[in-house]
Amino acid sequence: MTCTILTFGDSNTHGTPPIVTRGVYARHDAATRWPRVMAAELGCEVIEEGLPGRTASPLTDPEMGVHMNGHLGLRIALESHGPIDLLTIMLGTNDCKAHVGLTPEGIAAGVAGLLAIACGEEMQTRHGGFKVLLVCPPPVLEQGPIAQVFFGGATKSLALPPLYEALARVWNVGFLDAGEHISVSPQDGVHFNAASHQTLGQAVAKAVMRL
């Protein structure tokens, strides 16, 4: 039986390559993006829901706008698609931005809200039940053309894996620390190169199979 997986995240789920010139839109091709790599490994259908700039927090990003609210976005995604068999969530990188003003615990609180939505009776009933895999994004580097946006973000992002892992245990969902498998590109300190997408897609596929 074919399974359907919804991948919910930000630019690194969308497939944004390392930024060379800020403001120029680009995207890795379908064969490169990690959700497609994962789907090919598993033989599953994938729904890619990656929005560049999306946050785990429901707070409004003063630079990018209210539509970056991950809580609202997850509700929309889960009501737009279905039924699904599994949901992956990889968010928190944009919450490390200096102007968002969150602590690691504040970022984890946003992720907790996403898990409450995903694991709640309303959405689980709507889809006939589905599993969740929480993926902690790899740590950011404060360098390259968007370094000022992520001022202080490196320290915050390094504190996230144990918080995410604890949340996964509390909510009884799967967990994967992407930072154990890949690193962000030194070009912009945030996004993944093609090789990292390949590696992450394979790692997520293995984590899904364990679920």
Provide the helix percentage.
25-40%
Radius of gyration: 16 Å
Task: Report the span from N to C terminus.
Answer: 16 Å
Q: What is the CATH first-level class name?
A: Alpha Beta
GO molecular function, one term: hydrolase activity, acting on ester bonds
Domain SGNH hydrolase-type esterase: 8-198
Protein name: Lysophospholipase L1
Task: Give the topology, please.
Layout: E1 4-9, H1 11-14, H2 34-42, E2 45-50, H3 70-80, E3 86-90, H4 104-119, H5 121-126, E4 131-136, H6 153-158, H7 160-171, E5 174-177, H8 194-210
Parallel strand pairs: 1-2, 1-3, 3-4, 4-5
Task: Note down, in words, how this protein is organized.
It is a single chain. The chain has one domain (4-14, 27-210): SGNH hydrolase (Rossmann fold). It is globular and about 45 Å long. The chain is of the alpha/beta class. It has helices spanning 11-14, 34-42, 70-80, 104-119, 121-126, 153-158, 160-171, 194-210, and strands spanning 4-9, 45-50, 86-90, 131-136, 174-177. It has a 5-stranded parallel beta sheet with strand order 2-1-3-4-5, with helices on both faces. The two termini are 16 Å apart. It contains 8 helices and 5 strands, in the order E-H-H-E-H-E-H-H-E-H-H-E-H.
